[in-house]
Amino acid sequence: MLLELSDTQELIQRTARDFATREIRPKAAELDKTERFPDELVRGLAELGLLGVNVSEEYGGAAAGVVAYSLAMIEVAKACASTAVTMAVTNMVAEVIERFGSPEQRQEHVTKITSGEHLTGAFALSEPGAGSDPGSMTTTARETDDGWVLDGQKQWITNGAYAGVFVVWARTGGPGTKGISCFLVERGTPGLTIGKKEDKLGLRASNTVPLTFDNLRVPRSALLGELGGGFKIAMMALDGGRIGIGSQAIGIADAAQAESVRYAQERKQFGKPIADFQAIQWMLADNRTELDAAKLLCWRAAALKERGVPFSQEASMAKVFASEAANRICNRAVQIHGGYGYTREFPVERYLRDVRVTTIYEGTSQIQRVVIARELLS
Ligand SMILES: Cc1cc2nc3c(=O)[nH]c(=O)nc-3n(C[C@H](O)[C@H](O)[C@H](O)COP(=O)(O)OP(=O)(O)OC[C@H]3O[C@@H](n4cnc5c(N)ncnc54)[C@H](O)[C@@H]3O)c2cc1C
Q: Which CATH code is given to the segment(s) 7-120?
């Protein structure tokens, strides 16, 4: 693909690729089978600067930008989608605290995320009754003399059982989305209960848990950004997060395509490799075309974000296209493998299970289309 990478982008891509190939990929099938959270791999990512790819060096990040982040995410997701989502959410949390946090909050938490001291970050927006519509959340934060008291529940929180810091949204009063604020909650705070991990179709080595806040007290200094400004923070963070999830989907699909090309050349039927059949060739050609289109959309959104110009619509376009294309590609990969693709003997069944969620989280495909249409009609 014609995209001239800078030296920094190439370095990040190579670093992520080497680590993913050497350390992550050999463990991926076992991690999926045993549902083990790969904490040693997460520490390895921290050592390489991959938990803060777009975070400044002042706070321990790689300061390599958003395109580099996408490139790194693709490489990690090629090897293990569970490790990739752990990395995606942690990068997102580091970026959001760097962007909206006070100097003390940045020093305390961003540095601990990028160094691996926090292990991961968690992003606690969704609730049992508020998914696509986070503005309807019911978790509350009540002001006291010396801080805030949080009560409520969050659902589907990636990294929840392993996070050193949680970015939490709660109602602080006032109407609609203007009554929502954002807080930093540290691991181990009394009143924070981490629930039973979800038994998921895919991403089985990633950690997804519900959280309960029961009379959870945080100091005044835990408020992130302005009082009542939480919803805006969430929307801005999700715009960037969509580039990460689009890239994750691309990585999974890229791996599925590589397996498909290899298998099609090896597997013989009717006395010749199945790659000789036009029906198979067309699937491989569609995969390649859609993969490149997805990459270009993601990297355009990443480049816009890097330049500091609006990129919300482009991020939604990239996310909806990449995730839906990746689902088609992984599905075709199973088809190309025939019956063997339906077994654990080959990795394509894992890719298909792992990729499924990419059209759901960080905003469903339907919500991406709402964002795209809203902007084009405004
Ligand atoms: C593995 C996993 C990890 C996750 N990690 C996190 C995390 O770390 N932090 C976090 O905060 N959340 C996380 N989520 C939550 C995720 O973002 C939500 O699941 C997602 O936003 C959808 O919300 P929902 O599941 O409540 O579905 P719903 O909002 O109930 O949607 C159900 C269906 O209705 C459709 N729909 C809803 N509204 C509209 C509309 N206006 N127009 C058209 N269709 C609509 C949806 O597209 C969907 O098809 C995670 C989810 C999963 C599965």
A: 1.10.540.10
